[in-house]
Amino acid sequence: MKIIVQNKKARHDFFIEETYEAGIKLLGSEIKSIRLGKVQINDAFVTIKDGEAFVHNMHIAKYDFSSIFNHEETRPRKLLLHKKEIIKLFSKIKEQGYTIIPLKLYLKEGLCKLEIGLAKGKKDYDKRETLKERDQQMRMKKILKNR
């Protein structure tokens, strides 16, 4: 498994309840750009419409060596999930405060996969609390290492 890009800010801004692995329906020039690492998922989000999941605002740069039939950079892309997973996600996002965000994009056995997470937004005091806990853990590691 080769990780192409991760959304590092996602775990800082959201509580991740569940994660799912989804395939993506891509064009040829898109997968070539992804293999070169020219993709961003920081502002991306997932919506469910008519029983299908789509990822929006995922920026895949144009492939330099393709012809005039190049792809649009931020078009909505269809996610390939099982029907039961889509129904479960749709029922969860009906609840207040839940959203679906992409966590990482990677290649697995030659196929492009997107790990998505069911997330609930953090408040500012939650973010400060997690930073405080992380700082305490780092201090404990230093103290134990020096002994």
UniProtKB/TrEMBL annotation:
Database matches in PROSITE patterns: SSRP
Entry annotated with the keyword Cell membrane: no
Signal sequence coordinates: none
GO MF entry, a single one: RNA binding
CDD domains: SmpB
InterPro entries referenced in this protein's UniProt entry, alphabetically: SmpB, SsrA-bd_prot, SsrA-bd_prot_CS
A single Gene Ontology CC term: cytosol
Compartments reported by the entry: Cytoplasm
Keyword annotations from UniProtKB, A to Z: Cytoplasm, RNA-binding
UniProt superkingdom: Bacteria
Alphabetical GO biological process terms: trans-translation; trans-translation-dependent protein tagging
Main location: cytoplasm
Function: Required for rescue of stalled ribosomes mediated by trans-translation. Binds to transfer-messenger RNA (tmRNA), required for stable association of tmRNA with ribosomes. tmRNA and SmpB together mimic tRNA shape, replacing the anticodon stem-loop with SmpB. tmRNA is encoded by the ssrA gene; the 2 termini fold to resemble tRNA(Ala) and it encodes a 'tag peptide', a short internal open reading frame. During trans-translation Ala-aminoacylated tmRNA acts like a tRNA, entering the A-site of stalled ribosomes, displacing the stalled mRNA.
Homology family: Belongs to the SmpB family.
Record-given protein name: SsrA-binding protein
Organism lineage string: Bacteria, Bacillati, Mycoplasmatota, Mollicutes, Acholeplasmatales
